[in-house]
Amino acid sequence: MQPRLAIFDLDNTLLTGDSEVLWLAWLRAQGLLDAAMAERNADMDRRYHAGTVAPAEFCSFYAALFTGRTPQQWQPLLDGWFASVIAPRIPEAAHALVQRHRAAGDVLVLSTASSRILAEPSAQALGFGHLIATELELLPDGRLAGRTEGTLNMREGKVQRLRAWLAARGSDADAALAGATFYSDSINDLPLLRAVGHPVVVDPDPRLLAEAQARAWPVLRLARNSLATETT
Length: 232
Known about the structure:
GO molecular function: hydrolase activity; metal ion binding
Pfam families: HAD
CATH topology: Rossmann fold
Protein name: HAD superfamily hydrolase (TIGR01490 family)
Keywords: Hydrolase, Magnesium, Metal-binding
Shape: globular
Structural class: alpha/beta
Radius of gyration: 17 Å
CATH superfamily: HAD superfamily/HAD-like
Largest sheet: 7 strands, mixed
């Protein structure tokens, strides 16, 4: 009998905020970006929550922030950002929920539209062994190109990437998804929520809450540090 999958979105689910949005705000606070970028950041965040921004536009906008440096050159800024901005935004209830699935022997997968370079620190802090994220292109000299690479891990792309990941592990994707639990806050994740046997919405946006109520999906409020399930 194969272990069950426990799949988690990151931003606004296990984390009270969005990694990409908070990264741009951090760069702005360090004096590395101008006010116009802050305005574009707010617009991108608003349209993401509304489910109206195209995945290519969203992911490309944030990928461009990394243009011209190697991951190693970004590391000092990433370390400061994670310690001061991100780690305090991961509620104890989020750690406890992940640990509950770990203790049950489930296979833990963090699946996020954010880029791998931004998601990896959170994956490590929460103890995930598997991370599926949007990938950034590396140039031959090791610098980041400021572009994405491969299938974007957003909306239907999350289902495609997860199925490819399962196939690479030699798993029956249909059977694995039927037994899987997926936690997310966002209407953007509706394709994967529909694909799994056990969808759970976490601090949902209004459109996803309406879907959860219509489908009688359980609702969690991790931002309140609660693991109690609401009835819909």
